[in-house]
Design brief:
The protein is of the alpha/beta class. It has helices at 7-15, 32-39, 47-58, 113-116, 129-140, 153-159, 163-172, 174-198, 219-239, 256-261; strands at 62-66, 72-77, 81-86, 91-95, 100-105, 144-148, 202-206, 210-211, 214-215, 243-247, 266-268.
Length: 280
């Protein structure tokens, strides 16, 4: 069994159902206070230096790059929270202890708002400057590199429209829901392709499509609204000899057959923490 594989080769070995020698590992900090406790004050480091420091400290095999979209400006600063407004109009309150985000305003409140709404140009070269700087260094160190983009389900309610309103759209305004998804989906696919062309080995999205009781929508709704976009992303990744990684919290057992059909290569997390029975 090989023991001197690079991080990249270990991950690829697992994806190709070959023995990796050492099981690949990937972990991140979800809470800034936990990060400071284990890694110290990283505030003086660049994003690239922070990424490397975290990967080395946690012995990660996977690192991430992304494009610089949805830039935000600080509009309020308090001891335990800050409020920021993104370039497309989303206002987010970030609580520090414990770490928690609340979305306060969205750019799409009514259907007519979508007529004049525009996302940034996904091909703007300057948005990829940090990824271009990081990729050669990560490649030289042998990491498996995933390009992080927005999700399709989450892409709507993270940035465009409140999740409760989007649920209503899916149920009673399906044509409008499809327009929202097309706005987000075409943008996401362009960003994904640009990251793959720069050298990312994989594209990762976060969807969070369920709660402990089950998915937020029926399998039929998944197949109608989200399956086509996930399949297009999988096909895009595979056309560049890359991989598609989907993250989704929640008990999504009812969606698994369809998700597998999209061509997804990596799915996490899957297990009892999300009330999913691994024996199934």
């Amino acid at each position: 069994m090989p023991t001197n594989m690079s991080s990249h080769d270990r991950v690829v070995a697992v994806l190709q159902h070959r023995p990796p020698g050492v099981i690949p590992y990937y972990e991140v900090f979800m809470d800034s206070s936990a990060e400071r406790k284990f890694l110290g004050d990283l505030s003086g480091l660049s994003p690239l230096e922070r990424n490397l420091r975290t990967a080395e400290a946690l012995d990660n095999d996977i690192v991430g790059v992304s494009a610089d979209f949805f830039r935000s400006k600080l509009v309020e600063q308090r001891e335990n929270h800050e409020v920021r407004r993104s370039e497309i109009g989303t206002v987010v309150r970030q609580q520090f202890r414990p770490s928690f985000e609340t979305r306060l305003e969205y750019p799409i409140e009514r259907e007519e708002d979508l007529e004049r709404f525009r996302l940034p140009d996904p091909d703007e070269p300057e948005r990829y400057s940090a990824a271009k700087e990081a990729l050669p260094l990560f490649l030289d160190r042998g990491y498996f590199i995933q390009g992080r983009i927005g999700g399709f389900y989450t892409g709507v309610w993270y940035h465009l429209r409140a999740v409760e309103a989007f649920w209503e759209d899916l149920a009673i305004r399906p044509a409008f829901a499809e327009r929202l998804l097309t706005t987000v989906g075409e943008f996401n696919l362009r960003v994904a392709e640009n990251l793959l062309k720069l050298g990312a080995h994989c594209i990762q999205i976060s969807e969070d499509m369920g709660m402990t009781a089950g998915p937020f929508f029926s399998p039929a709704m998944y197949r109608r609204f989200f399956f086509p976009w996930h399949q297009r992303l999988a096909d895009l990744c595979h056309s560049h000899n890359g991989y598609f990684h989907m993250h989704s919290h929640g008990n999504i057992m009812l969606l698994l057959d369809a998700i597998v059909e999209t061509g997804v290569d990596i799915l996490n997390p899957v297990g009892p923490g999300d009330n999913m029975d691994l024996r199934q």
